[in-house]
From TrEMBL:
Organism field: Cryptolaemus montrouzieri
Signal peptide feature range: none
Phylogenetic classification of the source organism: Eukaryota, Metazoa, Ecdysozoa, Arthropoda, Hexapoda
Name this polypeptide is given: dipeptidase E
Free-text function comment from the UniProt entry: Hydrolyzes dipeptides containing N-terminal aspartate residues.
Keywords, in A-Z order: Cytoplasm, Dipeptidase, Hydrolase, Protease, Serine protease
Places the protein is found: Cytoplasm
PANTHER family membership: ALPHA-ASPARTYL DIPEPTIDASE (PTHR20842:SF0), PROTEASE S51 ALPHA-ASPARTYL DIPEPTIDASE (PTHR20842)
Length: 240
């Protein structure tokens, strides 16, 4: 039986809600179920670590949880080893993954989540790095990680901030769907779940449920894209 406890958000900001408000119930339920009181925040996707921590900590403190930043410790690895849970923030996916590699945290986080059941939460870039690779991020490669291989906490890819084509738009460039389909043409390409804004994915052991406010779009090599309703069981994606 897998010990995975993972909550992945498409984004932290959704129109009509304050910061993280749309996912407040999912986050609180997730942490309370796992008896978490202290959360380690990983702000590596942005440069202003202190400012980012302050923004996120204000929200989690209001909810009754303690939060510290991994950058406040002299040893990031020791911090992860003793963490009750981690929350990996959004920003630039390439910067985030490179910094995780630089601090030798890839295997450590994976082991703690997969083998020990340490709860992992990610949003945007933090969701990207939880998947098999960052091949389906929307971000610019402002730095170069040693590999695109990510934490591999789930055996497929996610495209956070997935956008549908606007039939009234005059923009004639590639759509998000076209780009994902082009990715799937490559050898070794993995299944991609397009998480729209407000979408949340809950992994509880061997079960995956789509949560949040919006449907998702699933791309599987060799098949047509399909719409996924909220509360759909996607556990079969773990059996790849």
């Amino acid at each position: 039986m897998s010990k995975r406890q993972i909550l992945l958000l498409s984004s932290s900001n959704v129109h009509g809600y304050s910061y993280l408000e749309y996912a407040a119930k999912d986050i609180k339920d997730f942490l309370n179920k796992n008896k978490v009181t202290d959360v380690v925040f990983i702000p590596y996707a942005l440069k202003d670590y202190d400012g980012y921590l302050k923004k996120v900590k204000n929200v989690f403190t209001t909810w009754g949880f303690n939060m510290t930043g991994i950058h406040e410790s002299k040893s990031p690895s020791d911090t992860v080893k003793s963490a009750q849970s981690v929350f990996v923030g959004g920003g630039n996916t390439f910067l985030l993954l490179k910094t995780l590699y630089d601090n030798k945290l890839i295997e450590l986080i994976r082991e703690r989540v997969i083998l020990e059941g340490m709860p992992y939460m990610g949003t945007s870039a933090g969701t990207n790095v939880a998947t098999k690779s960052i091949h389906t991020t929307n971000d610019m490669p402002i730095v170069y990680p040693p590999s695109f291989i990510a934490l591999n906490l789930v055996p497929f890819n996610i495209n956070p901030h997935y956008l549908d084509t606007d039939p009234n738009s005059k923009h004639k460039g590639e759509t998000r769907e076209e780009r994902i389909l082009q990715y799937l043409e490559e050898d070794g390409a993995d299944t991609v779940l397009g998480l729209r804004e407000g979408g949340t994915l809950l992994v509880d052991g061997n079960q995956i449920i789509l949560k949040g406010l919006t449907k998702a779009r699933l791309f599987v090599k060799g098949t047509s894209p399909q719409e996924i309703d909220v509360e759909t069981d996607l556990s079969y994606l773990l059996k790849k």
